[in-house]
Amino acid sequence: YWRSIAKTMKMVGTTMTGLEERAKFIDRKMDDYEEIRKGTDKAVAKLHSSSTTQFVISSFWLLVAIGGIFVNFRLIELPMSDLVGGSGSVGNFKISELAALVVILLETFLGMALMEVLRVTKLFPLIGTLDDKKRHFIAWAVFGGLLTFAGVESSLAYIRDIIAARNEAFTQALLGGEVMAEMSHSVVATVAQMIMGFILPFVLAFAIIPLESFIHSARAVVGYLIEFILRAIAFTFRLIGNAFYYLGSILISIYDIIAFPAMLLETIAGRDQSPKVETQIKQQKSSKKTTTEEE
Question: Taking the complete model, does pTM exceed 0.70, yes or no?
């Protein structure tokens, strides 16, 4: 009985310690939330750095996923030419290339649906709001579809190795050489391709997680970029306006320097002629007065 009490008290102590740590964590998050509401510089800088870091990390993993898509495409494009016929084309694309691209897109869609049903991502909230019974059914159906596509890709990878060996043998026969094949290397390459073809569909399914992070962080990062561009444009126009303003002041000063000698000479000449002008004005006034008196 005392042992059970001691065990229970130990569990209670562990629980209380966990609650205390969670309470401290919640307090820190509430402090961050209050700073965000107040719009302090620290909170804004933290949000900027968090969004930028998330954007960079998700971009890196998206690049890795794109590399996997390219490898997957090259893996199934050749055997698709035998399944759908490699002679036809739509524009600049072969039918086999389009078929391989459609298969990859379907795998990506199934992976997205699986992550949504498991509530790992929330790109489509309507799927996550379904009841548990429907979600479990959809999850198993989607997983079965992914498993089927993985088996198909593994088979296509096996067919690809056979087609590549056949094409190489045909080329050597046309060139008049002997057909030589290393069976050990061929078996290893075939097994490696089949494993890659089976794993890549599930890798594409998990690529939806960095895609969601990229979408959410890209909004903030694009906003920061637009803000930076607008600030740079405003600074450029302000700099150009100030440059023209001070250039006008400099031109006015230069004009004053050039015009000052001429204005000085004109002033001096006007002073010399002012007595003569006053005399002429007095004479004209006296003549007008005499004429008026005579009349």
Answer: no
